[in-house]
Specification:
N-terminal domain of MutM-like DNA repair proteins; 2 domains
Length: 279
């Protein structure tokens, strides 16, 4: 699933292409694309047509178009969602779920989603923060991110540090890839009890997550296949710079010990058993 760097890359691409432009039409190709918009596809389309995109924003893995400086078109990419800029009149793509045309006749905006886990939603008055994601915590790049408060909340949790990092109500934007990478940088095992850590060590992990996500953002995020691309359909390159994620059996860059992969929740954890010992 796209994490903070990938969502931010898409947001920046949308900002470059659709800010200041007005939506002329909206076609929902698959009702699951707007399943969270409870009034249905027709209402969704009616709400966005005629609106001008006055900005873009993001919180964690969510992003949205600001419409007429007051409303929001909320976007969650899910596992395979893509926001793409495409030629006007281009044929409907196999996994196209929604398309928006622009009044000035410029390029269309398309939402593709192979597995239809992503979704779009119109939120009236949600320009500053859409109400459906009001529970999502600020991410480490948010100017209002209260690092001391986040450290305190993590330390109060009776859970492993990796689970805490993935809890979007504590700190948003960090997913499985960047949690594994941050824990490797901090030389900490993901099952280490958050409550057993000093505030300084928790701060190290947060700083490490910011560091690895900033590095990923500089390379347009992480792509392992064509399911994550930017608005111009280009893949990202940070997968070439990963230290542990997806590298089971390969030598640790620090000590040479083979990287281990273990089951974690409904996914996997990757770590160095020498640098990141269980305690």
């Amino acid at each position: 699933m796209p994490e903070l760097p990938e969502a931010e890359v898409v947001r920046r691409g949308l900002d470059d292409h659709v800010r200041g432009r007005t939506i002329a039409s909206a076609a929902v190709r698959h009702p699951r694309a707007v399943r969270r918009h409870l009034a249905g596809p027709e209402d969704f389309a009616a709400r966005v047509v005629g609106a001008t995109v006055t900005g873009t924003a993001r919180r964690g893995k969510y992003l949205w178009l600001v419409l007429d400086e007051q409303d929001a078109l909320l976007i969650h990419l899910g596992m395979t969602g893509q926001m793409l800029i495409t030629s006007p009149g281009a044929a409907v793509a196999t996994h196209e779920r929604a398309r928006f045309t622009i009044t000035d006749g410029g390029r269309d905006l398309r939402f593709d989603d192979q597995r239809t886990f992503g979704h779009l939603l119109f939120d009236e008055g949600g320009a500053a923060l859409p109400s459906p994601i009001a529970h999502v915590a600020q991410d480490p790049f948010d100017p209002q991110f209260d690092q001391d408060a986040v450290v305190a909340r993590i330390k109060a949790r009776r859970t492993g540090i990796k689970r805490a990092l993935l809890d979007q109500s504590l700190v948003s934007g960090i997913g499985n890839i960047y949690a594994d990478e941050a824990l490797w940088v901090a030389e900490m095992h993901g099952e280490t009890a958050a409550s057993s850590l000093t505030e300084a060590r928790i701060l190290e992990v947060i700083d490490a997550s910011r560091e690895v996500m900033a590095a990923a953002l500089a390379q347009a995020g992480t792509s392992f296949d064509r399911l994550y691309v930017d608005v111009a359909s280009s893949s990202a390159y940070f997968s070439r710079s990963l230290s542990v994620y997806g590298l089971a059996g390969q030598p640790c860059q620090r000590c040479g010990t083979p990287i281990v992969q273990e089951k974690f929740m409904n996914r996997s954890s990757h770590f160095c058993p020498a640098c990141q010992r269980k305690r």
